[in-house]
Amino acid sequence: MFSSGKVVQLFYDVASPYSWLAFEVLCRYRNVWNIDLKFKPAFLPGVIYGSGNQPAGMNPSKLTYIVSDLTLLSEYFGVPMFQPSDLSDKDTLSAMRFVTALAEKEKEGDMLVERVSRELWKRKWRTHQDITQPASLTEAGLKAGLSANVVKEILSLSKSQPIKDKLKSVTQEALEYKCFGFPFIVCQVNGKAKVFFGSDRFELMAYFMGEKWMGPHPNKPTAHM
Amino acid sequence: MFSSGKVVQLFYDVASPYSWLAFEVLCRYRNVWNIDLKFKPAFLPGVIYGSGNQPAGMNPSKLTYIVSDLTLLSEYFGVPMFQPSDLSDKDTLSAMRFVTALAEKEKEGDMLVERVSRELWKRKWRTHQDITQPASLTEAGLKAGLSANVVKEILSLSKSQPIKDKLKSVTQEALEYKCFGFPFIVCQVNGKAKVFFGSDRFELMAYFMGEKWMGPHPNKPTAHM
């Protein structure tokens, strides 16, 4: 397979709405920038607490800002999402183990990881459905196109020690890059590496890679959502 | 004077390098977007602690990121700056009182506030000169084009109670907008208002105002620095 030499690793957790924006933009630019995009499902509380950071939502002013910011950003990025009325941070541990198990199982490519992650974000940030229970993960998996048998296998695998360890090790990998929150994007181009935090550095990332940023809709750059 | 109905208030402190980026970009876009740009010199520790936030630089991982981020951003934005070797947060209280006094004194326009603020940022973030002492502020004022007499007057005024109160009240104004750090940009367009934090929301701000973002160099959009 032809390699462009541009490897972009996206560390994310479906708990993070900004990660969803970054995920969709990188999926749209994958062929435009000819990048080797690697999904790195990880666990947000692991990097927040592991880096000595504090969840942004704990500060009332920041929380007010995030709600306002996400409203406009999601419209501009064309990724409809709505603030859940209940902002308590429901655990995404089971969901991220489920995605990790799928990533381990999916030998070729990452189409299924992409689809399942998107379904989980949709449930959490658009339709406000549960993603903590096995029945919810099953529903997301089926909607993403997995067969009932595969969902069952992935669910079972997601509870195994190797998968628990894998999620921990990917989270640790992020911490080794000095990650303190998601999305965290590690960009490697011709031997140079640069990390980018958040969903607001794509223009800078393009500059770093010698590519062009055409806004969040590269295939219809003049469109306004 | 013709008003476009687009008022953009920039709350800043020369302690903040990201504010410098926002300041230069907004100055470049002032005529391009036809905005009524208002400088709001304020005091960073006042909004950090007043909002219950923590200085980003206190977290080692965030600090590492900020250094890397600013290096690339300052190159891309064409605002050369270099991390001082001594990162201890020297107080900018005198400097911001000096700018506040100048803003109060400058009845028409804000050309001098713009020039003096830029000189102070240059000293702090490019040449790493002191900005805490009267002699340093005098030097910055003279370099910005103030006469020796005016500098003397502004220095004296900057120590007066009304100026101390004015800096406090602008900082308080920022807090009332739920500000938690700088740059903090309040954008008012045809009765709608939106706040933007950081120097990475200009594309979104343009979308909000119905304007076009052409990168950090609107007058030479194809240039790469």
TrEMBL record, chains A, B:
It holds the Pfam family DSBA. Gene3D superfamilies: Glutaredoxin (3.40.30.10). It catalyses: RX + glutathione = an S-substituted glutathione + a halide anion + H(+). GO terms for molecular function: glutathione peroxidase activity; glutathione transferase activity. Its EC number is 2.5.1.18. The active site is at S16 (nucleophile). Belongs to the GST superfamily. Kappa family. This is Glutathione S-transferase kappa. It comes from Cyprinus carpio (Common carp).
